[in-house]
Please model this.
Amino acid sequence: MSYTNEELGELIKPTKLHRKIYTDPEIFDLEMERIWGQSWIYIGHESQVKAPGDYITLNYGKMPVVMVRDKESRVHVLHNRCGHKGAKLVDMPCGSVSAFRCCYHGWTYKLDGKLTTVPHPTGYDGTGFDKNDPQYSMVPVTSASHRGFIFATMNPNPVELKTWLGGAGEVLDNLCDRSPEGEVEAAGGVLRYEHDCNWKLFLENLNDTMHPMIVHRSVVDSALEYIKTLPDDADEAREEAQIIPPFGASYKKFEETGITGFPFGHHYDGGKQSIHADYSVDPEYEQAMIAAYGIERTREIFTFNTHNTLYYPSITIKSAIQNIRVVRPIAYNKTIIETWSFRLKGAPESLLQRTLLYSRLINANGSMVGPDDLTAYVRVQEGLQSSGNDWVEIHRNFGQDVDQGDRLTNTGTSDLDMRTQYAAWKQYMTTEVRL
Amino acid sequence: MSIVIRSVEDLREIEGLLYEEASCLDRGDLDGWIQLYTDDATYWMPVKEDQEDPINHISLFYDNRVMMEIRRLNYTHPRAPSKEYRARSSHIISNIRVTDRCREGCDLTVTSNFHCLMHYHNKQTMFGGTYTHDLVRIDDQLKIRHKKVVLINCDAPLGTIIIYL
Model:
């Protein structure tokens, strides 16, 4: 069947969501067209393409694209498709080239995507083929940078990236401001974790503060039990011990962190408080920050402490930890989650090492946190095959969201995050696009 | 005390340790497994084939004794959702080569190839790659000080790796 806009809208109710949004492949295809087609999608960080010719490849929704730096040092996002027969022009995850040359018939493109060479061109004489017609070049995708984070959109009439980020953009700024130089760079590689579930189940977990004490109880118990066995003079401030136990924080603690929702589906939990708030600060780093910003501004930067921030639908960041996770949907029941870590320029390397430790302990395929979350998502994915109840409920603190002008706020254990995401889902999905 | 390979018996002892470790993992016996490691041991599974560094680059695993102990306790915790499904595995270790290069704090380096067939949560997965074991003799007992596991597909998108390989 095909859905009308009205039918799509009916899948989202104020306090419940229809299970088909997770289980129907046709809905997934529409999501790639309408959500991925209209929103700004995270591509990569400009530090991943430092020199002219450096590129990375990825799929934007289902479409292969390449991000590349040209000879004038401009960063482009281009469709990764030869203008001739359609072959992908570059297939490596990253690399460096002087030009894009198709492996099939040798059509060659400049780093900005312009077609320059077609071998044995006489065959085209008098056929109407024009090498300079932009349709035969690598077609550009609209892209924009926010402090080095490159987003792209297939939307022919997009809102500006800054407008789209809105008030939630302050978290991305906070991530960068935590560098004494105000800049970050991608460092320490990437983890790619296959999730056998719908992409939305990952997003819904980000500010779900009702799950940690259930799902992560075992690792918290294990860490605390181990710490108990240590002699009294052992260094209990070890980083593992700082990172794991906060996952067992109480409902009350999570309530106090609050959730804040924004237009376009963005939201975060925390602000003044989060489970990252009590990490120790390296004295050398603190000095570098104070030298750069002064004491008052440094305190402001450090005390703005969010947990997970979602820029709907493709990127979630932890500013206090300097890692991001990127959502790459594959099918209605398959998603790849990438974890990238960032170096704060001008900060000691120990901070990057802590970021990597965090990513490894919490987000890695071999960790004791991520796999427990994934188990829950897969249970939901499989459970929703049941027609016994067509609806997923999202009542928590419904009707109590507080309007603060550019944002809504509610208690940290509310479903404000769900309401925020699905308001955007409904808006995008009931707007037709041609891609 | 340096380990000197003098005879087939010495090689057998090394193989015996590797097979015992594999057997512990196949049985899901992390209590037994951890006994085979020194107190200052590390277990490393890089995410890149030529990754030099477990500290300044992300890894799939990089555990010291603290994390090994937490993982050992976690593996049998009754409330760990991902541990409800018991992993069943079969390790095959072959091409065992002894490197007599003595690195700092390590008496002997042993390299081997492995295949590990694992059944976990309704899915069978084939893991394969190279092991590097740094071994040390303590009180006449051969122990593992460092193990590095380089998967053939370490840089590919992977699912959950529920237990050490």
